[in-house]
Amino acid sequence: MKYLAIEDLKEIGQISRxxxxxxxxxxxxxxxxxxxxxxxxxxxxxxxxxxxxEDGIWNNIINPNTFDNKDCKNCGYHKxxxxxxxxxxxxxxxxxNEFNDTPNGNVSKSNDFSFPTNYKALKDRAxxxxxxxKYTMEGVVNYMRVNRNDYPLFFPKNSVAKGYxxxxxxxx
Length: 172
What we know:
By secondary structure, this protein is mostly helical. Helices cover 45% and strands 7% of the residues. It has one domain. A hairpin with a 2-residue loop joins strand 3 and strand 4. The two termini are 22 Å apart.
């Protein structure tokens, strides 16, 4: 995987040792391109290019960080964009992993000892992980708000609003 390690996903959900890595890679790329990028649109290229950096302003929002500001509610700690991406990736993987492509079209996985998961229950669970991603992103936005000089494109000077903020759309 390009951005996450299996351990990052194991911290938030149940991933088996023999998970489908190919589907996990697809879920990660979809999550980065279609879930995370709209949230950080003006910085998506910089974040992608600096994902592995160990210091600097990009590392400060990619990985967990602490901060302090009296004017900011819920300030103090954020889990980072890596956690946001992990939640979105896991939500997408849950849906992708349920189906297999065959010459006869997509089929739900099944064998003599298992039953397919109800799609509505699966979607509800994936939506729960998307909500966790949104909540986690709020902490990153609070950090960026406190350090707005480092992220001026995220908070335009002439904007009366608190910035572009979270732009989660219905994803799926």
